[in-house]
Amino acid sequence: MPENKKVVTLAYGCQMSERDADTLSEISTQEGYTRSEDLATADLVIINTCCVRESAENKILGKIGELKRLKEKNPNLKIAVSGCMVQQPGALERLQHRAPHVDIWAGTHNLQEFGRLIQKAENDQKVAEVWEKPNMTSEATPLAEKGKLKANVNISYGCNNFCTYCIVPHVRGRERSRNPEDIINEVQLLVESGCKEVTLLGQNVNSYGQDLDINCDFADLLKKADEIPGLLHIRFITSHPKDLSDKLIETIASGKHICEHIHLPLQAGSNEILKRMNRKYTREYYLSRVEKIRELLPQASLTTDLIVGFPGETEEDFQQTLDMVNRVHYSQAFTFMYSKRSGTPAAVMPDQIPLDVKKHRLQQLMNLQNDRSLEWRQTMIGKVYEVLVEGPSKSNPNRLTGRTRGNELVIFSADPSLQGSFVNVRMLETHSWTLFGEIVSSEIK
Ligand code: SAH
Ligand code: SF4
Predict the structure, then answer these.
(1) What's the pLDDT tens digit per position in 65-95?
(2) CATH entry 3.30.750.210 includes domain 144-259
(3) Is 428 within 8 Å of 437 (Cβ atoms)?
(4) Ligand 1 center–CA 162 separation, angstroms
(5) Closest ligand 1 atom to the C-alpha of 265?
(6) What is the Cα Rg of the chain in Å?
(7) Position in ligand 2 atom list of the atom nearest CA 52
(8) What does the domain layout of the chain look like in residue ranges?
(9) How far, in Å, from the CA of 162 to the mean position of ligand 2?
(10) Greatest C-alpha distance within the chain
């Protein structure tokens, strides 16, 4: 092995996957690797996978295939594939057969064992370890890279909701909340290392604490985080509508640093489909939650996830989804075609929807939401918003970019030295997906 070993980590899927990928990178650095983004010179490549939809899996399989060519050029390269795709029941054997050039296979529950797996691979042993159950001790204090402006912090793992389309509870296990002290300590350490914005992560943050024997729900946890000196933006994801309490909305409204952005996945607008998805709320209940948010947090930005083409979805059901998009006024929506996940109840439901119908509905939904998103951004023009300056814009490297408390992305001209500080930005114009603004004052916090 060379002296200066480099690791490149690629994360697919949600923020939990990104967070796990960060843990794996950090463990690799303890094994002597330096983080890098250059695949061509890597000694170890880690792919942390997602299996929530077939399209994600296909993309990842393509990437694993590409790495075979890289390994042919550099036979010392070690390839590790980890996470949700590997954790699916029965998946490991199929994957190993398809990609024999992979050196390390690991599931979602044995992240902390990764150092040992690297050592084995360095001794030219192929390793494959998928645990059935999580390691609760290591989950309590996960490793993370320090010194970044923004960080993700797990507050709970797994999910108890079993939406009938979803593979997540099958690959992430039952819901496990971390102790509030461990979470707050982790956030404090991050802030001391320079972090200004933290996103609290859980498949359903709103049910945080229900499995703990102390009295601390998500609203209580947010309040504690809001008191940490130096932590200036607190975000959280994801909120299940069925568990979004008045207390939580009130806590966000009275908080100082809690950002007014709620990601509230609706999934579908028809009560019949919601029932068959096992979402445990109706469209009326969802709208009542939105009304409460609008009452207490009039400036809040609402985003959502929507699925089209769930088994049995009629044209009328689909129209109900469009109707909800018109009623709620989301600033942004992530829209998906239903994807069959083996082992979930919806995969064997009758009346699966043909691909061409799903594609047509998705296009209609995206067109509608694009109009609504544009309208949302247009309401922001002329007003001033607090923005954390993140760095050069990807699409426009001469300018800087950042996000509002509502999570809207904005591009503006500014001195690069403002990176990492809070500024007030007046929104000037919007087209395609972005807002453009000008700084009206800097260093506001
Ligand atoms: N725990 C979060 C995220 C779950 S996965 C939540 O409950 O919102 C992220 C999104 O992927 C889901 O909200 C859903 O919209 C989508 N999704 C999950 N399974 C899917 C499937 N089988 N087909 C299409 N979209 C799916
Ligand atoms: Fe999947 Fe539903 Fe759990 Fe979200 S709440 S992770 S969609 S089962």
Answers:
(1) 999 999 999 999 999 999 999 999 999 999 9
(2) yes
(3) yes
(4) 11
(5) 8
(6) 22
(7) 1
(8) 5-134, 144-259, 262-377, 384-443
(9) 6
(10) 63
